[in-house]
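FAQ
Q: What does a multi-component entry look like?
A: The components come first, one per line:
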Amino acid sequence: MKTTFGKIWFTPMFSTLLTNRTEGLALVGVGVLQVGLQLLGLPGWICPFKAVFGIPCPGCGLTAAIDELLHGQVPAALHTHAFAPIFLVAFLVLLVAVTLPKTMRVRLAEAVARMEIRTGIAAWVLSGLMLYWVVRLFGFL
Amino acid sequence: MSFLSWLGSAIALVTGIVVLIKLFQKEGILKGILGLICMLYTYIWGWTKVKDTSLNLKTWMYIWTGAIVLGIILNVIAQSASY
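Then the predicted structure of the entire assembly, as tokens:
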């Protein structure tokens, strides 16, 4: 029997984004816009956390890192944000999902949900990202 | 001008936190943490749920969007003035 912590840790999260087409389309659209603006050297989403406190949030640098990944600059991308490859893969899976017909999208989401329930990968990635943020923060301070 | 820009960002942050709390309540801890990591996701989530009257998101999302737009305009004005 899973504890409450276990239930939370192994709860599917990413698969729910794949199921909801509206949310998926919005995420894909904004993601393309954000990276597109970065590629053009234009300002994109302004992180309110960083704007107010001057401290980067856990996600700050992802856009720049994905830009570097798309240019094949893998070491530079990992230095900018180590989780960029994971988010790029997640974005690509989401992109595929929103283009699929409903039955195939649901099957993809179910497969991803099974993986999430078995491995707790969403929780591992998110908690790893928070830990990475804390480590980077001490580097900035 | 830079204070106004900061104020716009502060309003955006406060409204973002309100929406983030609703995200935690509605979608659970993992999606809440995703929203905390990337406020852009919180912003997108807010707009996708704006028609859900139980969440009362409309006003907050309008304020948040207004604060973002104000911040952009003030930044552009500040950059133009510096040239």
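Q: Is there any commentary attached?
A: Sometimes. For this entry: Chain A touches chain B at residues 8, 11, 13, 16, 20, 22-23, 26-27, 30, 34, 43, 45-49, 51-52, 57-59, 62, 122-123, 126-127, 129-130, 133 (CB under 8 Å).
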